[in-house]
Amino acid sequence: MRLTALLCLALSLLAGCAARDQLPDYAARAGQDLPASWFDAVILAHDGTRLSATVFQPALKAGESAPLIVHTHGWGGWRVTGPDGFYGQQMMSGRAALKAWKAGYWVISYDQRGWGGSDGRIEMMDPRYEVRDASAVIDWAARHLPRLRMDGPNDPRVGMLGESYGGAVQLLAAAEDPRIDAIVPIATWYDLSDALAPGGQLKMGWAGVLVSLGLSTGYDLGKFIDADYLHSASGRLAAPVRAELAEHSLARYCAENRLPRADALIIQGMRDTLFPLDQGLAIRQCLRRGHADVRLLGMQGGHILPPPWQAWSGLPPFNNEPVIHCGARAINLYQGILAWYAEKLAGRPGGADSVPSLCVSLDLDQGIALDELPPPGPRVVLPPTQVRPLSSGWLQQATFIPLHRVGEASALLGTPEVQLSQPLGPGADALLFAALAVRRQGSGSPRVLDEQVTPLANRGSTRLNAVSASLAAGDEIGLLVSGFSGQYLFNSSWHAGLVELRGAVQLPGLQAFSPRLASRP
Fold first, then answer.
1. 204 and 169 in one domain?
2. Which of 233, 269, 340, 363 ranks highest by number of CB atoms within 10 Å?
3. Are residues 317 and 451 in the same domain?
4. Taking Cα atoms as reference points, which of 183, 175, 304, 318 lies closest to residue 248?
5. Rg (Cα) of the chain, in Å, rounded?
6. Distance between CA 49 and CA 65 in Å, rounded?
7. Are 387 and 431 within 8 A, CB to CB?
């Protein structure tokens, strides 16, 4: 028994151990004050799978009730096991969950099936499993927790919170379960197949990181030993896998007009190379087709690859900054989340007035608040340019193609698009990677904006990832093209001949902006 406890303690440094049922005897406490505390619980899913959870009980006076927040962890993660646990101290959603508990909310943080201390197989956000598990947690809370704020029988006032994998479950659960009133999806996907493999080209850098996390913290490799998933290690996502991941995405729900009903505060990262800002913008566009209040905060951080593939920020594992700037206003993301819940769950009108409809970070010190992104910028003819995919980007420098010189201080916001007027090469095997870049006045080296790189289709149009930047007069915007990208290891076509780019580039929107250097909190 002692050896088992020590093993569980050691394993909890990497993943959560299975929970034991420690539900207090609330009947004996009827009519009494409830102190702030926490305990473990086991929740049964609809198929009998045991889900390990930790329940955080708020301090409540006799007769007081509180809404419920359900916290879901990211890929390779586990539940918040207590106030001093790793996830609650180091991860953005875990810290926010603990702040919500201390602010007077019931919080349930649970291990999703296949992770941490929960049983079951990882099903890649299957609506039949992971999504239904979220409803099972709400059902359990309605049956077992006292003094929940209720909207009706078996209908607590419910919010959800989580990043990445734990953000996706909120979007689908809010479409399936009308009891969910407010969600905060952080750095998650709209279309998982498109996010992981734009144009079918798998982000092998991220695939390696995700599989490594699965090996170190997941108890069941699940689908990853299936033939179709193993075949994707070649660099192209197998067609059955693409279809399955699309089926498990909000994009499919939106196509079928099954819209989430909950009010949504979306937080997405500009430098996030796994789920970039475009995914958050698509979520926002989908949810706004319904009657929900939908707002989006674009921070700098998110999923950041380890060096040398991306510049390390020195921030915690999820690489998010605590404060973003929206025009003249600085917003603490944790206070913004609590303000969202105060209005949407606690019934405080105007509680979230400090949260803008749309805020896009330009860097760690400045950003811009607006209602919508500006209209696209100029469409620039792409000068005929020859590139050799075999060597470009590793044996020789990537090719920078100047497109537009900035005339005044501006904010660049939006999604560029490359439109090729002819195929890159004689066959369909030529592959290049493109990024929007800026060469500062007086500098010879271009900088890839937000480190976003996209595989360039051999012909036709390719939408690059959305970017933002604060630009000064004289800065030069251009297209940086190469045959190799560290984000797409093994995807290079190794095409030995020269290929020629011809066409045009639709630049993102440019609007006048006076840079302001703010002191970081």
1. yes
2. 269
3. no
4. 175
5. 24
6. 30
7. no
Looking at residue 376, the DSSP 8-state letter turns out to be: P
* Other CB atoms within 10 A of residue 357 CB: 14
Rounded to 5 degrees, φ, ψ at 170 are -65, -45
Torsion of CA 13, 18, 21, 23, to 10 degrees: 40
Residue 435 lies in a domain: yes
* Residue 520 within any structural domain of the chain: no
Map residue 512 onto helix, strand or coil.
strand
User: Same structural domain for residues 186 and 210?
Assistant: yes
Angle, helices 333-344/92-102, rounded to nearest 10 degrees: 50
Coil vs helix vs strand at 34: strand
Tens digit of each residue's pLDDT (9 = 90 or more) over 127-164: 999 999 999 999 999 999 999 999 999 999 999 999 99
Tell the residue number behind the tokens 């959560």, with chain if given: 16
- The answer on 485 and 384 residing in a single domain is yes
pLDDT score, position 417 = 97
Structure tokens at 462: 């390719």
Query: Are 6 and 27 spatial neighbours (Cβ–Cβ below 8 Å)?
Result: no
pLDDT digits (tens, 9 = 90+) for 8-42: 334 444 445 787 888 888 887 888 999 999 999 99
Phi, psi of 392 (to 5 degrees): -70, 130
Pair 406, 266 in one domain: no
Return d(Cα 109, Cα 61) in angstroms, integer.
Answer: 23
Q: Are residue 84 and residue 47 in the same domain, yes or no?
A: yes
Between CA 515 and CA 521, with CA 520 as vertex, the angle to 5 degrees is 145
Count of structural domains within the chain: 2
What is the C-alpha separation between 327 and 364, in angstroms, rounded? Answer: 12
Q: Is residue 3 part of a domain?
A: no
Please indicate, yes or no, if residue 97 is contained in any of the structural domains.
yes
- SS3 assignment, position 110: strand
**Beta carbons within 8 Å of 240's beta carbon, 6+ residues apart:** 228
Q: Are residues 265 and 333 in the same domain?
A: yes
CA angle 185, 273, 449 (to 5 degrees): 115
What is the extent of the structural domain holding 454? 379-512
Chain segment 46-78, per-residue pLDDT in tens? 999 999 999 999 999 999 999 999 999 999 899
- The Cα 420–Cα 424 span in angstroms is 8
**Alpha helix segments (H runs only) across 75-223:** 86-90, 92-102, 130-144, 165-176, 192-196, 204-217
Residues 6+ apart with CB under 8 A from 200: 236, 237, 242
Contact between 490 and 235 under an 8 Å Cβ cutoff? The reply is yes
Alpha carbons 338 and 236: distance in angstroms, whole number: 41
Q: Is 0.70 surpassed by the pTM of this model?
A: yes
Q: Are residues 348 and 476 in the same domain?
A: no
Give phi and psi for 138, each to the nearest 5.
-65, -40
Round to whole Å and give the CA distance between 317 and 365.
Answer: 21
